[in-house]
Amino acid sequence: MLLPVLRRFLRPYRRDVLVVVVLQFVQTIAALSLPSLNADIINDGVVVGDIGYILRVGGVMLLISGVQVACAIGAVYLGARAAMSVGRDLRHAVFSRVQRFSVAEAGRFGAPSLITRSTNDVQQVQMVTLMTFTIIVMAPIMMVGGVIMALRQDVGLSALLLLVVPLLLGVMGFIALRMGPLFRLIQERIDRINRVMREQITGVRVIRAFNRQDSERERFARANTELFDTSLRVGYLMALMFPVVMLIMNASSVAVVWFGAGRIDSGAMEVGSLVAFLNYLMQILMSVLMASMMFMLVPRASVSAERIDAVLATEPGIVRPARPRELPAGRVVIELDGATFGFEGAAEPVLHDISLRLEPGRTTAVIGSTGAGKTTLVNLLPRLIDPTAGAVRAAGIDVRELDPADLRARISLVPQRAYLFSGTIASTLRFSRPEATDEELWAALDAAQAGDFVRELGLDARVEQGGSNFSGGQRQRLAIARALLKPADLYVFDDSFSALDYATDARLRAGLPAATAGAAVLIVAQRVATIRDADEIVVLDEGRIVGRGTHGELMDSNATYQEIVLSQLSAQEAA
Fold this sequence. Notes:
By secondary structure, the chain is of the alpha/beta class. It has helices at 2-10, 14-46, 51-100, 103-109, 111-136, 138-153, 161-202, 204-209, 213-265, 271-312, 374-380, 404-409, 425-429, 438-447, 451-457, 472-484, 502-516, 528-531, 551-557, 559-566, 571-574; strands at 334-341, 351-358, 363-368, 389-394, 397-398, 411-414, 423-424, 462-463, 490-494, 520-525, 536-541, 544-549.
């Protein structure tokens, strides 16, 4: 899988790759020519005492060395630029694909794994790409060229290569095969560490509230130790590799000197040729070593490439149609028509045959117990998920025939979890409408009952990631203001008033008709006081609509609604 990924992402940098190959070829040829010239200096200059010859050939060697250095610098520069560009493009591709995922695809991978794939996995592929340009391109040229040049120096002594090279390749291949599965395990262990740490940072208050610090430390320690143990096994193999390689290389040098001395003594070989042969032997063995080291990095990069490709190959469930239809101008009615939704592999659907009409100027409320399917219903409206049966329509058009961006431009959503991006209060609010003026920001804040505390802080007050420097109620009000700032045909509040006190809740709901300017409003809640004044209340139970009507009508006729109401209010308050 590594080669297809590299082939795809290196395509825009073909010219740089070609130049790198040419520069590495020139550099390697220059490096291979130096030992032969050195042999000539020894044989024809030093032995006979010809200083002029030594200076002339030495000057040529300096010139060749300069060319080698220049080519090496150019190859490393262009190779590094191409490798870093591949890493950048991979990260962008993974990020862009994840942004298009529906809830189902994102949940299949999980946030910790997606983070690892877009960071650590991309880094592994990027590193192999860099090493390819700086090492692997040069290694085969060096090995083949070194063998040819060694044969030119002495054919008889070259027979040692038939023993040494296969031995070194065998040792490196054995170690590489052992390391491959360990690299896959390392990536999985990194996934687990990310998951555990993310859970512990996000849920730190829950951990402290239940006094579970010790057990969570143990859980992290287990995950950390598993990664440590696997990495240690890889470290042992790498630690074994270098002594074995050095033993083979040094033993080879001793063998060359041993047999070469005999050939020099018999007159079959010159001293300079022996020195050159030793240099070529080292170049050959170093090229084998470099190539083998690459093959040890390749298994980990291959695992990472597979994980990246799994993300890139996952087609989003929510796609833009080839020829999307356009929504008409003005207010549109959004409705669910017999919508059913079930997760893949689930025994029962989450929602069963839901029909709901959301009309401009009307407030519709959905109430039900935890797990009744309220948030799943909300996710159907902006097409974050698609129904497995039935349809969601906007202006009578199935939303699957619309561009999701056009549909979502007509809907303003306050999710169940009021998440705020880092920045300032002003930038947080303008996330929904970048061109909004300060006056419009204040109008939205006042409508969301957030104006008082924001005036004390100012619009430029800092917002930490997730809004962690605000209370739950303040986060909800800022999220509501962000939604109200966006002109929409439908405003959806998914349990968005739960952290507000009753007085603030009442004031906010009283101001909603003016703030939403006659658009349809859908309020999802578990608190009866929040929804009792809605034009229509829909009661959900185990994914089914079991009642609909006004508060008074449901109190007279619906047992499920009565049970919910009386669990929160007295009979007198509920009347």
